Amino acid sequence: MSASIGVEKMKANGRFFHHCLHVVGFLDLFGVSMIIPLLNHHIKSLGASPTTAGIIGSCYGVLQLFSSSIVGSWSDIVGRRFSLITCILVSAFGYALLGLSTTIFICAIARIPVGIFKHSLSISKALLSDLVAEKERPRVMGRFNAACSIGFILGPVVAGYLTELQGGFYLTCFLCSAIFVLNAGLVWIMPRNEEMFHNGNFGNEKKANDLNPENEGIKKNHLTWTLRDQVVSVFKKVTEAAFSDLWDIFLVRLLMAISVMLCYSNFALAMEERFHMKPRTTGYLISYSSSLGVVAGFLIGPLSKLYGHSSYRMLMHSSILTFFCIFLYSLAPKIWVVVLSFTFLAFSTNIGRTCIVDIELAVGKQYGSGTLIGIGQSVSSVGRILAPLLSGIAQEYNACGPPLLGAIMAFASIYLMYKCRIRYSGPSLQKPKSE
């Protein structure tokens, strides 16, 4: 009797844990998406030139590029909860400082802590991957991504109302900072990871053994480590993973990221030139696509079961669909063709992003989920740097140049996946069946 009560308590803790992380992800992107649309306007209102505003914006991306893998690996060493709370609180400080920025210098300084420590979503994904069975990982990740996407859709709407008030930008920054402090509190009250290692809701005994802190590189005695020990360990883990045989997986991720970014890079301008579409209508189409992305997140679980929990096949098919959608959009003669292509593109890109993370974690599990997800984010950051450059070059020739180049990138990633199909779909990716 007492044993069954204990199991039910652990299951309740597991459900509460999942719900808390979903709320954390929702609030995280809800707060960030309130700031993003207003930031450039605020910087220019302080007297910055377009070049200065661009440099300040680029600093954030560069910091994310180098800090993603480092912070992810650090979370493998010191533990998810400690690193997640640290990242959230430092980000809260950065957004509060942004709310106090009355000069360009303070505004630039405020972006530094956020650029280095704004990895709460990556650590949350690593935490989820630590605590669920491998066959359940795509479903759980899909739902988490859906919760985050809802926050990203609603944030700009709230920000639009706040900016109409006097001092609206500063109010928005302080509200965002308060949301992050609330998030830190939610993480603090979540059940401890160790309470759920033997919970049947998160996997079998083999999964519990796989989650042994020593296997994942998470050290229980991290508090006794010196700063030098942590730095050396982080550097070792990152270099081992970055120069391992996972290069093909990271290359697939880079190619697919660039292909989708090229598709969206000049979307508003292309719609205006090709179909004389007004910016408001373009905004509605982007919101429609984002909303479908939320639906896609909830469909990943059933799709994973339909595919026999084969992330490789799901990724291959979603990438093929992405290729055809981008290619169709680049040649679309009518607006309804654009709407059709973006409808399916919303599903294929969200499914593909979840599957590539699942494959990274399955193939490179020995490096730790935090390190792998962090390196993956760094790879995506490289794509964000390259995509605008490639888009500008392609746009010199034709308004349809960027999506056409994106289709070529997508095709290249499909070819690479096909060449590596044995490794992707081999025994290392076979997930245990439910007993």
TrEMBL record:
The organism's place on the tree of life at top rank: Eukaryota
A GO term for molecular function: transmembrane transporter activity
UniProt-listed Gene3D superfamilies: MFS general substrate transporter like domains
Membrane topology summary: Multi-pass membrane protein
InterPro entries documented for this protein: MFS (IPR011701), MFS_dom (IPR020846), MFS_trans_sf (IPR036259), Tet-R_TetA/multi-R_MdtG-like (IPR001958)
Primary location: membrane
Name the record gives this protein: Major facilitator superfamily domain containing 9
Keywords assigned: Membrane, Transmembrane, Transmembrane helix, Transport
Transmembrane segments: 16-39, 51-70, 82-110, 144-163, 169-189, 246-267, 287-308, 320-347
Subcellular location as annotated: Membrane
Family per record: Belongs to the major facilitator superfamily.
Organism the protein comes from: Xenopus tropicalis
SUPFAM superfamilies in the record: MFS general substrate transporter
GO cellular component term, pick one: membrane
Pfam name, any one: MFS_1
Domain Major facilitator superfamily (MFS) profile: 17-425
